[in-house]
Specification:
The chain has a single domain, classed as hypothetical protein PF0899 fold (2-Layer Sandwich), CATH 3.30.2320.80. Helix content is about 25%, strand content about 35%. The chain contains two helices and six strands; from the N terminus they run αβαβββββ. The protein has a three-stranded mixed sheet. β1, α2 and β2 form a beta-alpha-beta unit. α1 crosses α2. The chain is elongated and about 55 Å long. The structure holds zinc ion.
Length: about 110
């Protein structure tokens, strides 16, 4: 259900930017910390846009790795699970990336 609500939000953004023009493909960046499964998202997109002017458009999901910056040793570390500790042992870290959810581009149908 998480994916469906994300798709609904994306569809609203896309409709606004497409401004009535037909859309071929929508590209989005999703941070790994969003805990979204790209395949599930693509499928949810089909369900969400079915019967709307966006039906038939493809959602292309680009996953952004989660990166943590350490405030003690300065290292940037890519994490695969949401454990916010630097390999040096410090928990004085901040999230550099991984929380994105951005529509990066729209491909409109050739007229
Ligand atoms: Zn560190």
């Amino acid at each position: 259900m998480h994916e469906l609500s994300i798709c609904t939000a994306i569809a609203a953004i896309v409709r606004e930017h497409a401004d009535g023009r037909p859309v071929d493909r929508v590209r989005i960046d999703v941070g790994a910390l969003r805990q979204v499964v790209p395949d599930t998202l693509a499928y949810s997109w089909e369900v969400t846009v079915d019967g709307t002017p966006l039906a038939g458009s493809i959602l292309e999901v680009h996953e952004i790795p989660a990166v943590l910056a350490c405030g003690d040793c300065g290292a940037d570390t890519t994490i695969s699970v949401p454990v916010f500790r630097c390999p040096c042992g410090s928990t004085s870290t901040s999230v550099v990336s991984g929380q994105e959810l951005l529509v990066t581009s729209l491909e409109l149908c050739p007229v």
